[in-house]
Every structure is written in C-alpha cells, then in structure tokens.
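Long-time lurker, first post. I've been practising inverse folding by hand and with some scripts of my own, and I keep getting stuck on stretches where the structure tokens seem ambiguous. Below is the full token string for one chain I'm working on. Before anyone asks, I'm not after the true native sequence, just a reasonable design that respects the backbone. If someone could post their per-position residues I'd love to compare against what I wrote down in my notebook.
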C-alpha cells in the first residue's frame, strides 16, 4: 500500500490486493456421468457409482473444489474543503472461480471440469465510487454571510451524494436443451464459433445486445458420440451500471430544546436506465441475446428517478 499526503487537505492511496481461496467449498455431484457414447452405458447407467454401487441418482457433497482467485488494484483519493469532503475510490480487478459461492458447477463430469473456470458472476472489472458531503459555507462561524437575512436562509444546509459507476457483470451463455447429450448430473453449453463476440449493445426485443451468431447449439445425432460445447463460462459482459443518489438536509433550532429537521433525497437523480444482463439461453431463440429488464437500487419496475421528503422533530 502506497499513501501520500498533499498538504493538509488531500490524501491519495494506491494498493494491490490479492487473495487465493484454495479448495473453496462447493456443491459437487460425486455421481455424475459422461456425455453419451454409442455402445457404452449412458445416462444414469453411466454415473460414476452406477457399476460399483448401483447408485443411479445425483449425490451432492459439500466439499473443497478448485481455487478462487482475486487480484485488484485499488486507489482512493480524499479532499477536504473546510468542513466539506469529496472523495473517490476506484478498483480494477478480476475474480476467477469455478462456481459462485456454494453453487453447483454447471458441468459436473470430471473430464470436462475445465469448462467451469471463468470470471465470477459478481466480477466487475472497473468499479468507481465517488462521494461528497458539502456543508453550507454561509452563517455564523462560516466563510461568508455571518449575519443577516441571507445568512439565516442559506446557513445550515448539507448536501451529500454517492455516484456509482461499474462495468458490466459477466454473462454465462448456456444451452438448457441438451438434445442427445445425456450426461447425468450436468447441463449443456453451446459452441463458440467465432473468435470474438461483437457487442453492439442493443436494448429490447429485436435488437440483440451481443452477436448471437457467435454461438451455436450443440445438436449431435444420437447415434454419434456426444460432447459438451466449447463455450467458456462467463465469457462476455453485460451492460454497465451508473447511479447517482443525493440528499439535502437542514436542521432548524426552535428555542434551546427543540430541533426540526427537513430532508430531501433523490434516488437515481440522473434518471439513468441501468439494464439487466441479456437472456443467455440459446435454447430459447425468441429471447436469446435480448435485454428486457432494468436493475437498480429500487424494486422493479421502480428503477426510474424518485424523490423522497421527510421531516423529524427532536426534543
């Protein structure tokens, strides 16, 4: 961690943070089976414990599985202006895992575990958080208008806010219709058929967010050896996120024992639409690749700008 103070008002910090979770606990199906092969046991009969113990169902075990890594560059700057403060925190990072938290890896067959490795679903490459807390410079003991009507009207106000800007979360393109895969305990993923996936960023039905032709469903005839698709986990990114919340307040003293407070809050004051990830199941072509929902700090469908007003009396 590097830290430097510029005068009495500004502080700057840089640092690297890295973690390794070796053997992170996961739900693992210890009785999964391989993709179907003609002439060999298939489906439940091909499970790992089918021939030796006659067990033909999923057997989930919470156990250590693989390593989760996090690497991040973190920076923070804080600047004070009298009794007011403004600051920003920025993180450039990557989290790689095989499944999120205690979730099951999508592909449980040990021979294809490598297809589960990818960015965590909560990974955001860029994360910028800025904040401010301004106090009115007017009034008794402040810089300007120490007395008079102007001082009375403008003094005592406080303005604060938080601006959040993050890059998009990963999108896991899947294939929920396995066709003839018949790999007990696992689910299918499609093939990635282009070297890069274009992101035109379309919103709404009829305008795909990403190039859906970069993926192709795996549909091998049942009389041929089956396989999992080659598309990796979480290999494209969804829409980014931007939100500004602010608050304005003032305390009014009434006598020596009574205080009246007024507060106004604005949520998503920029009225910026933040969109959810596109539908990612290639088995549903009518929705595949389309963004049809928004996200935010308010319950859907109320992610648009909102204002709240409140008062409080203290005595």
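-- Answer (accepted) --
I ran through it position by position. Result:
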């Amino acid at each position: 961690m590097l830290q430097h103070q510029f005068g009495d008002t500004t502080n700057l910090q840089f640092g690297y943070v890295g973690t390794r979770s070796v053997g992170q606990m996961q739900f693992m199906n210890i009785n999964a089976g391989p993709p179907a092969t003609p002439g060999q046991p298939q489906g439940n009969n091909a499970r790992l414990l089918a021939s030796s113990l006659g067990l033909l169902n999923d057997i989930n075990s919470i156990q250590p599985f693989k390593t989760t890594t996090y690497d991040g560059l973190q920076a923070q700057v804080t600047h004070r202006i009298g009794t007011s403060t403004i600051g920003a925190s920025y993180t450039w990072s990557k989290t790689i895992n095989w499944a999120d938290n205690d979730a099951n890896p999508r592909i449980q067959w040990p021979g294809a575990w490598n297809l589960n490795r990818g960015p965590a679903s909560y990974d955001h490459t860029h994360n910028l958080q800025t904040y401010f807390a301004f106090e009115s410079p007017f009034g008794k003991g402040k810089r300007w208008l120490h007395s008079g009507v102007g001082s009375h009207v403008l003094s005592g106000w406080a303005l604060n806010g938080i601006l959040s800007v993050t890059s998009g979360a990963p999108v896991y393109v899947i294939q929920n219709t396995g066709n003839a895969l018949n790999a007990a305990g696992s689910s299918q993923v499609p093939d990635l058929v282009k070297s890069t996936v274009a992101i035109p960023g379309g919103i709404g039905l009829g305008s795909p967010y990403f190039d859906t032709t970069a993926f192709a469903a795996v549909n091998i005839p049942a009389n041929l050896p089956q396989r999992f698709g080659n598309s990796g986990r979480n290999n494209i990114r969804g829409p980014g996120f931007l939100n500004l919340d602010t608050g304005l307040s003032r305390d009014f003293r009434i006598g020596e024992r009574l205080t009246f407070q007024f507060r106004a809050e604005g949520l998503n004051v920029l009225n910026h639409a933040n969109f959810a990830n596109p539908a990612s199941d290639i088995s549903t072509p009518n929705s595949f690749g389309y963004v049809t929902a928004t996200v935010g700090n308010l319950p859907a469908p109320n992610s648009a700008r909102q204002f709240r007003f409140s008062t409080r009396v203290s005595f």
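A couple of notes from the structure itself: The mean pLDDT is 91. The first strand starts at residue 2 and ends at 6. Happy to go over any region you disagree with.
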